[in-house]
Structures are given as C-alpha cells and as structure tokens.
Amino acid sequence: MSSIDDIRNNRLEKLKILQEKGINPYPVSTLANNEVVNVVKNFTKLSKSKKRLILAGRVIALRPQGAIIFFNFYDGTGKFQALVKKGEKIDDESFSLFQNTVDIGDFVEIEGKLFLTKRKEKTLQVSSWRMLAKSLRPLPEKWHGLQDVEERFRRRYLDTLMNQDVRERFLLRVKMINEIRSFYSSKGFIEVELPQLQPLAGGASARPFTTHHRALDADFYLPIAQELYLKELLVGGFNKVYELGRRFRNEGIDTMHNPEFTMLESNESYADAQSQMEFIEELFKFVVKKLFGKMKINYDGKEIDFGKKFTVVKFYDILRRQALMNEPQSIKREDARIKAEQLGIKVEKEDGLEKILDNIYKKTARSKFINPTFVIDYPVAMNPFAKRKEEDPSLIDRFQLVVGGMELVNAFSETNNPIDQKERYLEEDKKGKTGEMEISPSDKEYLEAMEYGMPPNGGIGIGIDRLAMLLTDSKNIKEVILFPTMRPRKED
C-alpha cells in the first residue's frame, strides 16, 4: 500500500471519529461573518469590537506544541494565523477533538478574539471551532509542490492552491478580459451570444471538431470562428457587435496552440482595416495602462514598449528582407517549396502557395517583431472574407498584429460583395477537393444574407490566450488556460 493510501486511511479514521460524536464533517452552511482581507485591514478596530468574529478557511499549516496549536488558514482572500490553547478560551474536549481530527487541507470554521503575539503577529485565539469539510488526501508539500508539469495542468486546483504566482496569473487574465469588455462597451459595442453547434464550419480556415445531434440526426460543428454570424447581425441592423468565447480547432498542440481556446471577434459597420488598426492600437494601450499603470512591459527577457506608435510593415516586404526572396508576389509554388525546404520547413503536397509563403514568414521573420507591429497587404488567397484592395485586387485589406513574436490579432475590411464572395468560396472548395483540410467551405445561407445587403464593415479577431501569455510573461499557452486539453491519463 502506498503512503498516500496510508494517509487517506488515517484521515478516514478521523472522519469516523467526528461522525461517531454526531458531528457532520460536511455541514450545509457556515456562520462565518468576515473575511481575512478585511480582518487584516481593520485589525485594530475588530480587536476592540464586542461583535462575534467568525472566520472560515482551509488549514494550510499546523504547528502543534503540546497544549498549544498554532495554525494558518487561507480563505481565498488571504492567509491568517490562529491559536488553539488548551484550557484557555476553549474547553478540553474541543481542543482534543481539534488535535486528533484536523489535518492540513481541512476546511474549518473558527470563532474567537483577535490579539497580537509576542512577535507582533496578528492572530485569532479560537474559542470554538467546527469542521466544514474534512480532506481525505494530503496537499503537495509546500516547497516541492507538483513537480510534474503535466500534473500541474491536469490538477490545476492544486496548482492554484499551492502556487500564489499561478493564482495571480489567472486573476490578471480576468482583469484583462474585464478591461477589454469595458473598452468595447465604451465604443458602443454590444456583446452577443452565438451558437456553439453549427451546421457548417465556416468563418476561418481550420479543421473543425464534429459532433452529432441524435434528435435531429444531423452532424454539427464546434465553432472555429463566429464572424459569419456577426456579419449577419450587421445585415440585421446591429452596427457594432462582438462575442468573447470559446473556439475549437482540430489542430496540433504546442506552446502556442490549444484545440480549445478563447477568441474575441468583433464586427463594426462602416469601418475598414485602417480604422480597425487605430482601434486595436488604442485598445492595447488602454489595457496595458489599466493593468500595469505604465506602457512598458517585459516578455521573455525583452522590453516591449506600447507607448510608441505601432510599426506597420507589408507582408511581401518582409519576405524580401527577411527571407531574401526577390519577387515573392510572383513566385511559383515549386520555387516557394524549394525555398521553404532550404529553410527547413516541411511542405505537405496539399499545401497551397500562400500557406508556404506564410510558413516562410513565420520561420524567418515573425519572432523578430518584439514591439507592436502591424503586418499588412496579404495575398488575396490568404483569406476568403477580406476585401480586395482597390488599388491592387491581388492583395487584401488585412492586417495582423504581432507582439513579442506572437500573432495576437487578425483583422480586415470585410468583403460585402456577394458575387466576389461566391467566387472566393469556389476557390476554397477547389482546395478542399485537392485534399487541403484547412479551408472555409461555401456557406449558401451566409451568401443569401449578403444578398439582402451588408454594410461595409471591419472585422477583428483577438487571441485572448496569447494576449494573456504576453501580459503574464508566460511561454506556454497551457499556463494561461485553467484547464488545457491534455492527453487522457492511462489507467493503471
């Protein structure tokens, strides 16, 4: 039998002791009337108060010294010290029960008076206590914690419990999302809820997840993007809409990709890529200032300055400078394939020219863009929904924002011409027939909506997880997703 089993059996015996005394180790409610954060802040005032002070929390440290037991507990707002002293303030039976049944990890309710120890430590002397939840498994050791990184991600509840830095990381993510929502609201956007079960996987080029509805006897797809629904709302008279929610792409898992992730997608009537670029720059400056009170942050050992005007570079210019390609705008697929393989990039037989060029860009240039950089003017085949540039129809009016070497934003002027959209859908369908999996197939219902008249508009997609990585200085996307996708654990 393992040591864990021994500990669990021992705790089950303590559980039995409580039950034999008629004590419910898992009561419905607690009488707690304050929180640690308030006790610490108002310690002097509460020390003099005659009002009953009852706190509740998880025991995180026990220091028994004969007839005296010091312990620390955590209630979600902070840590505090308590003292149980035999024969003083508490009767012998309650002391003995505490001594013989309470373990680190248990949730307890304690009532008592505040005082300062000889070392000037703020402490609650317990006059009565009650078990709120008896724990049956030991917490990881304080100084060692969860050493296996995969176990940290699988058992995130222990990771956040034992590691304050991890808790703070996710609290910062929450604040970041709140500030983003606040900014969008201040600009007149409304947040909408869109379907998670979709008859067609559209709005982006990616492999979808498929599921089946029994009552309808029909296959549905989890959303890879929501922009088509957002644009249909523009047709329906809503001018500024966004959704912040989960997306699902059936792709590989690495430090930058998780199959289930969070995106913010927005569409704004009468906007274009240029105005959306200005919007994104203002948004990022706003969020960084709100979170940190300054415009400079550190990521991966490098300083990133959000205070300056964001840089703008053209996609083909990047390939000329960084990949040393003379005429990337007119290169043939075979020549691009040779160039890619020279750079150590694997090219699949179904990969189109634009995907090869995009992989060359990612290999040679993207990691070099540390300060905020807008990459603009992509070839038309790289997105079936972006509007063509009027001065050069071979390009689309699209940009991506790269910061710290990561793509954080994809945005463009949305095509609202149903004829052009249908032609580009047909091109996507051709790719699908040749074996390319990451396409956006023709959507007849969306085309029909466009034919009723869609206002010119700009669309934005923001990778919330990657932005959280940047702002928390994390190198792995799993570090900013509470419960990332993991390979199922093999049963013993």
Explain what you see:
There is one protein chain. The chain is of the alpha+beta class and 492 residues long. The protein folds into two domains: 3-133, OB fold (Dihydrolipoamide Acetyltransferase, E2P) (Beta Barrel), CATH 2.40.50.140; 158-323 and 365-480, BirA Bifunctional Protein, domain 2. It contains 15 helices and 18 strands. Strands 6, 9, 10, 13, 14, 15, 16, 17 and 18 form a nine-stranded mixed β-sheet that branches. Strands 1-2-3-5-4 form a five-stranded mixed barrel. Strands 7-8 form a two-stranded antiparallel ribbon. β2 and β3 form a beta hairpin. α7 (164-186) crosses α9, α7 (164-186) crosses α15 and α10 (315-322) packs across α12. It is elongated and about 90 Å long. The model has no long low-confidence stretch (mean pLDDT 94).
Q: Structural class of the helix and strand makeup?
A: alpha+beta
Count of beta strands = 18
CATH fold naming of the largest domain: BirA Bifunctional Protein, domain 2
The fraction of residues assigned to DSSP E strands is: 25-35%
Total of helices: 15
Q: What count of structural domains?
A: 2
CATH homology superfamily of the largest domain: Bira Bifunctional Protein, Domain 2
- End-to-end gap: 15 Å
